[in-house]
Amino acid sequence: MKRMGLSMDAMPDVQQVVFKTSIKEIIVEEPEVAMLNLKGQKVFQVTGGKITEKALVIEEKKATIPEEDIRLVADQTGKSMEEARQALGESGGDLAKAILLLQTR
Hints:
The protein is of the alpha+beta class. Helix content is 29%, strand content 35%. It has a three-stranded antiparallel β-sheet with strand order 1-4-5, with no helix packed on it. A three-stranded antiparallel β-sheet has the order 2-3-6, with no helix packed on it. Helix 1 packs parallel to helix 3. It is elongated, with a radius of gyration of 25 Å. The model has no long low-confidence stretch (mean pLDDT 89).
C-alpha cells in the first residue's frame, strides 16, 4: 500500500465524533477511527460506538427592516404598512420578493 501512496493508521483514544448539518447533529460515542492518507488526502473512517441524533434548534434572526423599505412596499402594492412589514419579514427583507408576495395575495 505504501507504493501506491496509501497509509492507514488507527487513531487511539477517540472519545467522540460529531457530524453537524444545518438541521441535525449526529454524535458517535467511543468510536473506532482510522485515518487513511491517500496521496496527501486524508480520509477518516468512523465505525462502532453509540450513535445519537438530535435536531438543532434554528434561531431566527429578527431583522430590523428600515421604515423606508416598508413604505416603498406599501406604496408599490397598495397594501397597509403592517402588511408590507409582514411581507418583508417573510421574504427576509427582500423588496422584490415582498412586493411579489403581496401582489399574489
